[in-house]
Amino acid sequence: MIKIKSFWDYVHSSLWFLPTLIVAFSVFLAIILIELQLYGSENEKGLIERTLLFGLGAQGARIMLSTIAGSMMTIVGITFSMTIVTLALASNQYTSRILRNFMRDRLTQFVIGFFAGVFTYCLIVLCTIRTSEEGEFIPNLAVFVAFLSALGGIGVLIFFIHHIASSIQASNILSSVTNEILVAIDQIYPKELKNEITENDEYITKLMADENWLPILANKTGYLQMIDIIKLRQVARDQKIIVRMEHKIGEFVVKDTTLASLAIDKVPDQETIKLIHSTFLFNAQRTMEQDISFGIRQLVDIALKSLSLGINDTTTGVMCLNYLTAIMVQLASRKFNSSYHYEEDKLRVITQDRNFETLLNESFDQIRENSKDNIIIILKIIESLGIIAGQTKVPYRLDALSKQIDYVSEMVKQNIMSHHNREQINTQIFYFHKLLKDHFSLSQNSKLKI
Predict the structure, then answer these.
(1) In a designed cystine with 233, which of 21, 343, 360, 436 is the match (CB 3.0 to 4.6 A)?
(2) Tens of pLDDT along 384-418?
(3) According to the 3-state scheme, what is the secondary structure of 201-228?
(4) Rounded-to-integer distance, Cα 344 and Cα 233, Å
(5) Are both 440 and 305 inside the same structural domain?
(6) Structural domain containing residue 205
């Protein structure tokens, strides 16, 4: 199943799949219109000719189709050039990790497919036109559709130029990445916490230290992209073992190093090892399907690039923090999946999952360290942490947010020399601690009620 999902994700994000479908549709459309003209009754042919805006002889139809086909190939070249330039600019200005988002862009794929499809359509129709010496045949309807497609292509090209100019703007890139992350959050963490205030399952512990853990070595090198947890539970149940993952999804695994450990009394047979390996999917790149951390990494990379000395774009850094805040607000109200997976009421799989604190640290640690003397970014981080704190009453999560503020406070003492700026930041920190104190009080009251 995970291999099918991986293949679909590859096809879905490829630049060739949708254009190929459009070209195939163009071939089918050309054949249908030609057959309609060729085998239609006299009444149908007359109706077709009366509905057309103009009529052309065989030579004129050939000239028109040749002109349209040549123009479409020229525009295809321009479209590819614009796409490549956009990819290069985005990679240099932001991060190479967002190139996959551009390649997945449906409008870019449609435009390339549209022009390639019109070119293919014109070639097929052109081959069927015959002069009077050859036994005259002019598929008028097919020629007219080619003419309309050429007119439509002008609008498509203008809209594509507008789309390319918009797509490389930081706000649109950040919004696109964030929307993809939010969709992934809904799929991975669909349940809300409601009135729950504890998160025992979010702590990854080394259980059953007295068990005889035997290592299973990775059979491939690459990023751990997906785990088929349902199949892995079933394999563990059938073999009466416990599987403990040694890597999180999204981590890089080297071949012949420990991938997982088995609680088993004897060395597992090759069939069992093969079944376990089949539940893991490795790839050369990460995806967001089971790995929200990858999306956060993209936003953090863009922020770090914008705050570098060579670019020094504080506004983009602030926008990155805005979107990271929106992501953490969603996560603050969600129930994280348990790291302990059962099958028939028995523990079968222990996974290494990221928790709220891990994702919070991934969102803010590097940005904080790379903006030690940037007052605007520091104040924005404090504001963001306050917004996130307002969305949760879980003591563990509030404590993680409090640690982040302590890191900011320590950094301010060491790097901000201006008394005015330090006072401004300390005032915001004071209000944050007041908010946090109120939320801790609410959580304690909730405990008493329970």
Answers:
(1) 343
(2) 999 999 888 888 899 999 999 999 999 998 888 88
(3) HHCCCCCCCCCCEEEEECCCCEEEEEEC
(4) 10
(5) yes
(6) 201-283
